[in-house]
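Team,

Forwarding the record for the chain on the shared tracking sheet. I've put the sequence and predicted structure together so nobody has to dig through attachments.
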Amino acid sequence: MKTGEGLLFVHPALGRLPYRWIRHGRDAETNPLPLVLFLHGAGERGSDNHRQLSHFVPELLGKAEGQGLAFHLLAPQCPENAQWVETNWSAPGHKMPNQPSRALALVMAILETWR
């Protein structure tokens, strides 16, 4: 499986966030392409910068290859004791908080650097 570049984003106020950047498909190096943001589930949290690729990403890349699709994939890895959205997972529902979690704020900061 293609794993792309393992990168580390560092924000002076928010901290650090490992992520993978995968250029997939023909002309992915030279042409503007769609960006796919993949936020993994709880089982892939950590700091190894590989575990977030273990589910869904291989299937996505395989299907895209079969259909000739090209895109950039951003796959950040949420820290071990954090969540993309700070909410009780067992609650039947929740209201979106006004402020993003630190982990999600870091993802938003990564996206801002490419604006």
